[in-house]
UniProtKB/TrEMBL annotation:
InterPro entries linked to this entry: Aldose_1/G6P_1-epimerase, Gal_mutarotase_sf_dom, GH-type_carb-bd
SUPFAM superfamilies: Galactose mutarotase-like
Classification via Gene3D superfamilies: 2.70.98.10
Name the record gives this protein: Aldose 1-epimerase
Pfam families named among the record's database cross-references: Aldose_epim
Organism: Paenibacillus pabuli
Amino acid sequence: MTQQNAAFEEQFGGIPAVWLRFNQFEAAVIPSVGANLVAFRDTEEGFRYLREPDLEHMDEFMAAPAVYGIPILSPPNRYEDGHFPWNGEVYQLPVNEPATGNHLHGFLHDAEWKVEGYGSNELESYVLLSQEVKEGHVFYKYLPFTFTVTLRYSLSSLGLQQQLNVRNNGKERMPNLFAFHTAISVPFAPESQASDYTAKITIGQRRELNERSLPTGQFQPLTPEEEQLKGEGVSPFFAAMDNHYTAEPQNGRNYMELTDHRTGDKLVYDVGTSYKHWMIWNNNMAGGFFCPEPQMNLVNAPNVQGIPAEEIGLIGLEPGELFEQTSRLYPIKPQK
């Protein structure tokens, strides 16, 4: 193992973290707060690809971990009145978004995860984190299913890979609904401005949302800027966005591509085709970051009638079944 390639425990802003280093790349995961991967950097270029917590104000991160790094959401997004119908039962989730009267974002993004192990070799530096949901777990309190989730993050010459695994340890079919509230830094290059950037995302149709931010079942026509978003690219701050889209893979890939037109560098977030929806949120155009969020299921999917479950991502796992999806964040350097 070279000095460049390493996996080790060291604090991030005073909180225990696992750090990964491989060649020019560096990443940090905070196990105690949702296994959130809070940093992914190119140390040679000085690029910081994710919105990182402020090391001097970690209380802000602790208060709102879902708007930094790569938080895992399950069940993701909103559920009307907290109702979650499944297998003939209606489970009641806490209404934690009073403004809409909905449940928001589930139970894993602020939970403490177990570090199963970490290491480094000539091929990669990696960490494996797990969450076992069973009686006594806050998730189980509201959705009484037993399962294990693992997140494996690895750095290699190909960038950052994320591997999500879910295994149903119970005796009945369980909901398998996941998303990542990924916060991408704009700009990621220290000398660039947000105005130097355009984003392309493999969106399809835009779903209409009501005043409670729940789908109405209707689609809305894409604006010219949204057509650019799925085409040649557009500023991720062209309008205030908290928008819900179908995913429409292009050339077999479901991805976001962010381009710095000053340097010519690109960041690609290839999320995999299990994520059939995108949420795109840009914090009311406040700048500094935006969230292209890959999501398996339609918002409020268990309460939606008349649309095939497969189409809206309302999928389940049978006892003993295993679900896996791999995503990757990686840079593309400008051609010399």
